[in-house]
Amino acid sequence: MEFNNNKAIYLQIAEYVCEQILLGKWKTEDKIPSVREMAVELEVNPNTVMRTYELLQGKNILNNKRGIGFFLADNTIDQVKQYRKTCFIEDELPNLFRNLYLLEIDFDELKSRYQTFVSQNFNA
Hints:
- It is a single chain.
- The protein is built from five helices and two strands.
- It is mostly helical.
- It has a domain at 9-76: Arc Repressor Mutant, subunit A (Orthogonal Bundle), CATH 1.10.10.
- α1 (9-22) crosses α3 (46-58) and α1 crosses α4 (76-102).
- The mean pLDDT is 93.
């Protein structure tokens, strides 16, 4: 995984974990990689992964079963969507709106490009 210098690594790892969940690679109530396993896989300090897991536990996305490991929560999909939606609306949408305004891109063009993106990337 390549990290972006503009955002804290633990937040980028949280995005990675959420993406695994939304893509269906990790299922509800599954055990996820341990802190050490994830740290080795992503080549980061275990404390960074622990910070990520604690954040996601606070968002009710992960559950810690003491002595066993971290597991996805029962309603993890809904929690991930809520968390990611909040992050997107607060962090990314203002910049997107600014660029739409400055570049004079209207919503019809945006809608057309969005539909093309979805059909090329997610419709089999």
